UniProtKB/TrEMBL annotation:
Classification via PANTHER family: GLYOXALASE DOMAIN-CONTAINING PROTEIN 4 (PTHR46466)
VOC domain span: 108-225
Coiled coil stretches, renumbered: none
Protein's name according to its UniProt entry: VOC domain-containing protein
Entry keywords, A to Z: Repeat
CDD domains the UniProt entry points to: GLOD4_C
Transmembrane feature ranges: none
Taxonomic superkingdom: Eukaryota
PROSITE patterns for the chain: VOC
Protein family membership: Belongs to the glyoxalase I family.
Span list, region Disordered: 233-254
One Pfam short name: GLOD4_C
Organism: Culex pipiens pipiens (Northern house mosquito)
Amino acid sequence: MKVLRHEEFTQGCDAACNGPYDNRWSKTMIGYGPESSHFVIELTYNYGVKSYELGNDFGGVTIASAEIVDRATRHGYPVVTGAGHSVLTSPDGYKFFIVNEATGESDPVRKVTLNVTDLERSVKYWHETLQMKQVAKGADSAELTYGGFVLKLAKIEGALNRAKAYGRIAFAVPFEVQPKIDEIIKAAGGTILTPLISLDTPGKATVRVIILADPDGHEICFVDEEGFSQLSQVDPESNGQLDKYIQKDPFQDK
């Protein structure tokens, strides 16, 4: 993956983008290509926070690649062989499922998995309320998409614990669609964590977001694609910026 952009903030986000912390923080967007055409991952770093309790809410990311496993093996990184895939675990405990396939020019990120406690309830929310297309469904899982990557909902037994390391999934929609989402969620009796709000990024475009929660508390952000298309431009200086702030970080051992 490549560093696509890196941004620093001096105080907590009004939409809790960095979690429940009112401190200096940063976000780094990484992926296999531009955010306009690829699923990318946002790495959120809160200065001074040394660890987060990991829950069981996030199932993992499925990536197609004929090279990742060999590269991990060469670097001595643990690889666990599963059914039809290999499993890598990030330093923070997140699972990456690697399918041995060449991808050509397409996005290697194939699937993102969220764990849920009631599959039927979750499918109803994501498919009927959020209008995601259902592409597969079994006894213990369902797969949906807006086009591009697939969202997999996987049923787990027992309670779901989002703990402290929970994240948020985001989608870009036209500016004019956001108020309609607000109306749909209110009519369905759903949860709106953050009503429509504009967020500033120093020196970059302002975006408007609305943050929802599904029946299990998974956070969902809908950002306006007009503002986001400007904000998400690949920054060729981002690698250097990231390295600079890592070196300057007073909370990390040098």
